[in-house]
Amino acid sequence: MKAGNNTVVKITYQLRTEPNGDIMDAADETHPFSFLFGHSNVLDGFEKNLEGLIAGNQFNFELSAENGYGEYDEEAVVHLDKSVFSVDGVVQDDMLFIGNIVPLQDQHGNPFQGRVVDIAGDKVTIDLNHPFAGKPLFFNGVVLEVREANPVELEHGHVHEHGDHSHH
Ligand code: ZN
Question: How far apart are CA 156 and CA 167, in angstroms?
Answer without folding.
Answer: 11
